[in-house]
Amino acid sequence: MRILIAAAGSRGDVAPYTGLGAALRQAGHEVALATTDAFAPLARAAGLGFRSLPSRPEPHGDVSDKRELMRAASAFVTELGQGFAEVLAPDTDLLLLSATTAPLGWQLAEATGVRTAGAYVVPAHPTGDFPPVVMGERSLGRLGNRTAGRFALRMADRVYRQGVTDLRDRLGLPPLAPAAMRRRQEQANWPVLYGFSTALVPRPADWRPGLDVVGTWEPYVAAGAALPTELEDFLAAGPRPVFIGFGSMAGGVGERLSEIAVGALRRAGLRGVLQMDGPAGDDILTIGDVPHALLFPRLAAVVHHAGAGTTAAALRAAVPAVPVPVAADQPFWAGRLAALGAAAAPIPFAALTEERLAEALREVVRRQAYARAVTEAAQHMATEDGVGAAVKALT
After folding, report:
1. Please, what CATH class does the domain formed by 2-194 belong to?
2. Which H or E run includes 363?
3. Quick one: 229-382 is in which CATH superfamily?
4. pLDDT score, position 102
5. Partners of 30 in the beta sheet?
6. Closest C-alpha among 265, 285, 264 to residue 276
7. Which residues contact 8 (CB under 8 A, 6 or more apart)?
8. pTM given for the model
9. Domain spans of the chain?
């Protein structure tokens, strides 16, 4: 079977599909990943084909302005839709869509007849159990949560309106609003596999048939992969260090974050591995990208932005966290970790200080309750086979 996986967004929105794609390839299928050029090396390292999608344009002005973010998102998906029309080969048997690409992929399916399925890494369907992930973790009550979830979908349909209109015109399809296409998919019980752990989000009982939570999809790591020698030497030279990294969220404020991170580590009397520019020393090492699956089990704690992938990696490694969420779904995952007892209370990114971070680090490293909670969650995750379940369901 020829499978095309389409995903777009930040690294955490794309990397899980390299693990899923590699498992599908190992099962005997021909697999390609359609995403932006920045992630071509990830696809190729996993042995997947690569199809280029347009990159996300940067928002202009104040990024805290919701209207500006909506305009930037709409511009991104409109450009993405135009690139989308080019990536589907005529002999594709299955188009596997992320939450970001699904509203565009549905149009391709109508035009070509290709089979599609969803592969989402963040909850996207309304439920009474929790509010939409973009609103954080605070419940609005069952009715309020469902109402907010439906409102979030309407806002997403607005973001996709121009992109869907342009794509349908290019494909020679009659006009159809994104909301109407979404209703059509829901009425047909369009299948969606959710690649997160039930340790973090149990499947809501009020979800319709066809929405299945299968377990986490880990990014691909080559057999025999190892950490850099410098990092291995640092790990061996003293007590377990703390990892501090914020992924793409640290853009433009790296110097400030580095000062806070180093100061907090030294206040707490801890060694640190920083995934950002910063001073080196006997107690601090700065690194680039390394596989979380190899590094995290050897740490005392992880300070991260609470993206879905990093959240899962830290929990799977049984290492407590200090979540510092920035935006989007990050406050949701940060709240989930804290509710499990696997993390300190989230520190909003804008409120991060050296003192607050040092206090949270001392708490998660020294209190055994955190170690017990993350160990229990990791044992739960070990019983799940996310990629195996997905391969079985799709093929």
Report:
1. alpha beta
2. helix 354-366
3. Glycogen Phosphorylase B; (3.40.50.2000)
4. 96
5. 2
6. 285
7. 14, 35, 36, 53, 56, 76, 80, 98, 100, 101
8. 0.92
9. 2-194, 229-382
